[in-house]
Amino acid sequence: MNLNNKVAIVTGSSKGVGRVIAEQLLSKGAHVIGWSRSETTINHPNFKGDCLDVGNEEQVIAHFKEVMRIHNTIDIVINNAGFGTYRKIEETDSAVLQQMFDTNVLAIFYLTKLVVPVMKKLQQGYIINISSIAGVTGIENMSAYNATKFAVKGMSESLYKELRKDGIKVTCILPGSIETGFFDEFEEFTSNNKLDPKDVSDSIIYCLESAPSFHPVNFEIRPFNSSVK
Ligand SMILES: NC(=O)c1ccc[n+]([C@@H]2O[C@H](COP(=O)([O-])OP(=O)(O)OC[C@H]3O[C@@H](n4cnc5c(N)ncnc54)[C@H](OP(=O)(O)O)[C@@H]3O)[C@@H](O)[C@H]2O)c1
Predict the structure, then answer these.
(1) 31, 58, 56, 53: which is closest to 42 by C-alpha?
(2) In the structure, which protein residues have their CB atom closer than 6 angstroms to any atom of ligand 1?
(3) Alpha helices in 30-101 (DSSP H)
(4) Is there a domain that residue 155 lies in?
(5) Of 2, 31, 133, 163, whose CB has the highest number of CB atoms within 10 Å?
């Protein structure tokens, strides 16, 4: 897909991976709508930031209506907003578990339900869902996060098969640890081999720009540091 003039929604745009991918899409000529609970401080004529909770379906519906009122189309969705916790199962608060499913999983359903009818009419579109290595392998003390990210991978694989006949590509991105604020609330978790958010953003751009004849289904990204044995 040529990204120039395409209309893209990026969730979780205020920081981390979402912010970098929003900036990179803008540099490619796309119009970007960034969604986060806090303000996204990107100053660009083709950027509009909206503050909402993506896990709240009413808010997603209202803000998507506004996107359609302004642009009357949607070409790309980057379902990136998410969070995790590093907690033993008996210390995992049920309210936090619910919030994690709302943000990491249900939010993707809410937005995808809205964009697919538009993309089907266009017979074109790209949905990128950010899962994690935690979407393919269990990690001690991350059972809640693991459950959400496995769900994202399963949902993405189903959608890729369901939507390919309508010209809509769905890719699940599965990154290893990334150097962002994601780990700020984590206790006792260390990783000294992390991806840069730009590594993830570059991989997303690679997928979006892939030729119409193929598409990456699951895109696993690991840090590559030849000095680490
Ligand atoms: N960092 C890693 O090691 C890593 C590895 C693999 C996968 N991932 C995944 O990559 C994605 C991005 O993570 P990141 O590392 O960039 O984390 P981050 O720096 O903490 O950024 C998370 C983004 O999500 C937004 N967000 C969280 N809850 C939200 C909600 N309810 N509604 C709207 N926006 C919300 C945050 O903005 P507000 O707080 O302003 O709402 C922020 O913009 C996540 O899905 C994460 O699970 C991360």
Answers:
(1) 31
(2) 11-18, 35-38, 53-55, 80-84, 103, 130, 132, 175, 177-178, 180-182
(3) 57-71, 94-101
(4) yes
(5) 31
Q: What is the pLDDT of residue 225?
A: 75
CA distance 221 to 143: 21
Whether residue 82 contacts residue 104, with contact meaning beta carbons closer than 8 Å, is answered with yes
Work out how many domains the chain is built from and give that number: 1
Report the CATH number at residue 25.
3.40.50.720
pLDDT of residue 227: 66
CA pair distance 90, 111, nearest whole angstrom: 32
Give the pLDDT score at 226. Answer: 61
* Cβ(18)–Cβ(34) below 8 Å: yes
Mean pLDDT of successive 10-residue stretches along the chain, which has 229 residues = 98 98 98 98 98 98 98 98 96 96 98 98 98 97 97 98 98 96 78 90 98 96 76
